[in-house]
Amino acid sequence: MRNSFCRVPVPLSSSRADLRIAVIADSDTRWKWGALTARRLAPDPEQRRVTGYLLRGRATPTPRQLGEVGVATDGLPTEVTCAEFLDVLGRERFDVVVLALVGGAVQAVLHGVRALWPGPAARPVLVTGYVGVVYEKLADGLLLRHGADLVLANSRHDADRFRAVYEGVGADPDAVTETVLPFLGGAPYAPAGSRAHTVVFAVQPSVPESRADRTYLLRRAAGHARLHPGREVLIKLRSRPGEHTTHLEEHPYQRLADRLPGGLPANCRPVYGNMGEVLDGADLLVTVSSTAALESLHRGIPTAVLTDLGIREALGNHHFLGSGCLTSWDRLDEGLLPRADPHWLAAQGVTARPPDPTPAPDGAPDAHAAARARLAELLSRDRLPAVAPYYTAATAPGYLPGILARHHLDIDGTPLPGAARQAPAGSGPRRWLRARLREGARGAYRHGVQRVAPVIRRLGEL
Fold first, then answer.
1. Which of 160, 122, 127, 125 has the alpha carbon at shortest distance from 145?
2. How confident is the model at residue 283 (pLDDT cuts 50, 70, 90)?
3. Phi, psi of 198 (to 5 degrees)
4. What is the DSSP string of 319-388?
5. Phi first, then psi: what are they for 427, rounded to 5°?
6. Is there a contact between 292 and 201 (Cβ–Cβ < 8 Å)?
7. β-pairing, 268-271 with 232-236?
8. Which residues contact 25 (CB under 8 A, 6 or more apart)?
9. Which contacts (CB < 8 Å, 24+ apart) does range 321-329 have?
């Protein structure tokens, strides 16, 4: 017998008092985006209550990763499956739900919400978007997000692209709303003269992918430090070995550094921590295509996007064409400090901020005004129409069922039998045991990805 959800009325109100927001994320970076987006949509902390959820999966962040992000909500996030989260939505009142998830998971929640409220109803406003630079799977990711009430675009450039995709398939583009990345902020950069004293190399979990390419970049960073002994070169790492982020990391830089001939020089070292805090002391940001480049550019820090491995869609650095930031380690070794093109910055929703003794706390006080206005209008309605994703059993009969099945939902969005199980009362030891088993299974999976899979691939190439 198919599971059914218990639905409770979700009264909508144009008042911001007691605005209840649920944020569900599936990785550390998406948690950062989702929680900060909730703050931008409801900027007054006295008039919002944010409840966090983590979608259980291979990239579920550890407590250390959550702490490093530095974004707190009202209590620790609760780990749930998709079906369990939908069950929560059916039982509790939320005014807004921020879906900080990969496209397939967003699509599953959208269909699940449609199953909960199949007709016009007082349901939550659904908000989704992208955590950073959109350089791949543009059409696929956007169509999986279609059906949300707000699809946030991080720039005018992205908003135009998003609408073009929706209009190209005959889907309603009205949900696309221009904003900026919610974590753009921090103190404007105060130039350190003609030389960079602190260089931050922001690495990425999967770009580049091969061990040889990643070793090359690490070697060049170490070489830059040796060539400039007066500079400090920081290797900004996203995660510790065994932890996962949005993307898989088969060759962690920590392990590559252990095998680097000569090791890292004294003025070159790995660092963890919140990216904003690391950038506080940076005079030059170097990366292949990390979203950290946008954070750096927003603060006016010289930013270099590497071309050493080519300018390729697979690397994502093609996104920075026209930015003035594309360069190589050779030129950085010679002392180049790139200067970004202001027109490119404006199109990307990034404004290089000059030093200011009293800067605005978020750097872009009006950037989310359109999103807040649209949200207020939706909250003022007595009822919202049923969620209407582009993908349905009629438009994508060979694609949608697989996406929903991965999240244990049937084609109509209802949970498959046994998908949403609630822990029985007094089952503390059982919950503890399940949590330990999940963590053990997750650890085995990560070990397989980072240790076993590369060995098998190498053996296959013999």
1. 127
2. very high
3. -125, 115
4. GGTTSS-EE-HHHHHTT------HHHHHHTT--PPPP-SS--SSS-TTTTHHHHHHHHHHHTSS-BPPP-
5. -105, 35
6. no
7. parallel
8. 31, 33, 34, 35, 52, 53, 54, 55, 77, 100, 101
9. 323/297, 323/348, 325/293, 325/297, 329/220, 329/221, 329/223, 329/224
- CA-nearest of 303, 374, 296, 305 to 337 is 303
H helices of 228-304, in order, are 253-259, 275-279, 292-298
- Quickly state the pLDDT bin for 187 (edges 50, 70, 90): confident
What is this structure's pTM? 0.82
Please check the confidence at residue 189 and state whether its pLDDT lies above 60.
yes
Query: pLDDT tens digits, residue range 286-333?
Result: 999 999 999 999 999 999 999 999 999 999 999 999 999 999 999 999
Q: What is the mean pLDDT of residues 118-127?
A: 97
Asked if 199 and 284 touch (Cβ cutoff 8 Å), the reply is yes
Cα-based distances in Å from 330 to 191, 209, 220, 262:
22, 22, 9, 20
